[in-house]
Amino acid sequence: MKVGKIIKVSGPLVVAEGMDEANVFDVVQVSDNKLIGEIIEMRGDKASIQVYEETTGIGPGEPVYTTGEPLSVELGPGLVTAMFDGIQRPLESIRAIAGDFLTKGIEMPALDRDKKWHFNPTVKVGDEVGAGDIIGTVEETTVVQHKIMVPPGVSGKVKSIEEGEYTVLDTVCVIEGDKEHSIQMMQKWPVRKGRPYGRKLNPDEPLITGQRVIDTFFPAAKGGTAAVPGPFGSGKTVVQHQLAKWADAEIIVYVGCGERGNEMTDVLMEFPEIKDPRTGESLMMRTILIANTSNMPVAAREASIYTGITIAEYFRDMGYSVAIMADSTSRWAEALREMSGRLEEMPGDEGYPAYLASRAAEFYERAGKVVCLGSDSRVGALTVIGAVSPPGGDISEPVSQATLRIVKVFWGLDASLAYRRHFPAINWLNSYSLYQNKVDEWMDGNIDKEFSENRIKAMALLQEESSLQEIVRLVGRDSLSETDQLKLEASKSIREDFLQQNAFHDEDTYTSLDKQNLMLKMVLAFYEEGRRALGSGVYLSELLDLSVRDRIARAKYLSEDKLSDIQEIIDDITKSMEELISKGGILNA
Amino acid sequence: MYKVAVVGDKDSILGFKALGIDAFPVIDKDEARRIVDTIARDNYGIIFITEQMASLIPETIERYNIETIPAVILIPSNQGTLNIGMDRINKNVEKAVGTNIL
């Protein structure tokens, strides 16, 4: 193929001429260092290339080699537990040869070529298979069974297939179709193209995260999209980490995109230690990390999101429920902006390219609950959760707006809540979930038939609280009636005893749905019983002095196997109220 | 028709009976509280209460502050005044008018 020549270098952007044989989005190798780049614009024979590595020391006149292939990721056994950079280079193996930081032009296959995996066929010679059909399985980790699928576009009769130890490049199966296809365990897929699926389904099952404010009030559905916007220090990363730890997905892809390196270190240090409550195995056994921290090349940041979601789609195609967390999509948008600026494109709002919204939509639209390709019509789900870091916490900026237009769940983090040490600082007044109706049906059917009713009651209390607070600010708390003061107390209890959750407490970090249901019942029981007592003449101060209130506040630290204790607290509330009424109430006076 | 009641120690309130007002003599604060709460629900429009007794049950007085009916009015007892009744009136006037015009 013709070799191009560099005529301009501007940061991660390189312009080369003599590239008339290349196509847009082809991967190229820049200079003799073989830096990996991707063509993002063609004008005549001039190609603009975004280079995924440091371009220091490169100058005009140096060669550019075209590979003729789009930017692709390698999909096969060996993905889970690994950590990759934005263009799927395995960071662990690179460290072994290059040290702690990436060196220029280093090349390394994403999947270990030498490691042998035990392949278990699930079809027999002579079976008719089509695209997406599972032909065999590999125990990738103790919790993930990697399913080897027929790649899209291939179908026919199995000519040979055998159990055994294979590397990812060995042929495990031969399929006789219009021509003979040999199938390896590894397949390649271009990152900018969504992987094909059968058909999309409506997401109706909640993604259970163990986070009370999320599961109860603003649930995300499996196969849904969610955004976590919030100013600096409001806890976006902790929310993302909590979701990555506790969400009941079978595979987690965590993309650290332009954020601090230490946050990825946290993941690497914590995840292997934490036991997954469902499998009892280490959380790392289901996690794939993509790291492009803030000091890594900007162009690869743009690619990291696509690399992550393509890997996630691959596992979705196996019929798994996958969740991908991107922290943060604002850095990704800034990478787009930087490239767009260097390309001298006409800027849109705040300098972001005019195509920001369509790129964001393209990314989020790859989420979904789908019937996968293949004859067994298995169902897979891909949930996308993106953090957004609006500067100054003002979500009227373009990235937040472009995101909110697409996603269906909005967890708005609030600096003032974080300042008051209310964590997770998800603002209950402006957050929303458009999956609520669907999830309510599921909760009422699977957890408790009063679940959605209780949730609505609690939310109504919280909303009333905010309007009562305004009156309190104007004329003081004493001017409220006792019923209103009880409302304030009850909503304070919802805030402090239910919504606040300590991510670093052993018991509090994860709350099962059953416990959430009981806890919600408990705080509401105090309000409802209290209102009854007030109605029969009991004084508010007596209500608030009840010792059972301490037990309510401590209920969140009860362990999951002591759920009956919460039921006891509820009984205790009723009992102490009855006592108050019989002692001081009018009815018995 | 609303009724009128008076609550306080026996010596202070007995005279009100002559005016046709229901008198409820009480001795201690628990009894006072219970009597006030009971008659408040029993179609009484005005409840006079002696300042001495009222100072023992501020919570109960507070409770009827924000309700239109019954009006709880503090009166001096036979031992003289504590001035809290007049204070309340002054405060209410200040709240309503903005300045003390009395």
Q: Structural class per helix/strand content of chain B?
A: alpha/beta
The chain-level mean pLDDT of chain B equals 89
Helix content, binned percent of chain A: 25-40%
Radius of gyration of chain A: 28 Å
Per the principal axes of the C-alpha atoms, what is the gross shape of chain B?
A: globular
Give the low-confidence spans of chain A. none
What is the N-to-C succession of helices and strands of chain B?
A: EHEHEHHEH
- Strand fraction of chain A equals 15-25%
Main sheet properties of chain A: 10 strands, mixed
Dominant shape of chain A: globular
Unreliable spans of chain B are none
- Provide the CATH architecture of chain B: 3-Layer(aba) Sandwich
Distance between the termini of chain A: 99 Å
Helix content of chain B: 40-55%
Q: What is the CATH class designation of chain B?
A: Alpha Beta
CATH fold-level topology of chain B: Rossmann fold
Would you write up a description of this structure?
The complex is a heterodimer of chains A (589) and B (102). Chain A is an alpha+beta fold. Chain A is 34% helix and 23% strand. In chain A, the strands form five sheets. In chain A, strands 8, 18, 19, 20, 21, 22, 23, 24, 25 and 26 form a ten-stranded mixed beta sheet that branches. In chain A, a hairpin with a 4-residue loop joins β3 (26-30) and β4 (35-43). The N and C termini of chain A lie far apart (99 Å). With 102 residues, chain B is an alpha/beta fold. Chain B has one domain: 3-Layer(aba) Sandwich (Rossmann fold), CATH 3.40.50.10580. In chain B, 41% of the residues lie in helices and 22% in strands. Chain B has helices at 10-13, 29-40, 51-54, 58-65, 84-97, and strands at residues 3-8, 22-25, 44-50, 71-75. A four-stranded parallel beta sheet of chain B has the order 2-1-3-4. In chain B, β1, α1 (10-13) and β2 form a beta-alpha-beta unit. Chains A and B meet through loops of A and α2 and α4 of B.
Notable traits:
heterodimer; A: 589 residues; alpha+beta; six-stranded antiparallel beta barrel; B: 102 residues; Rossmann fold; four-stranded parallel sheet; globular
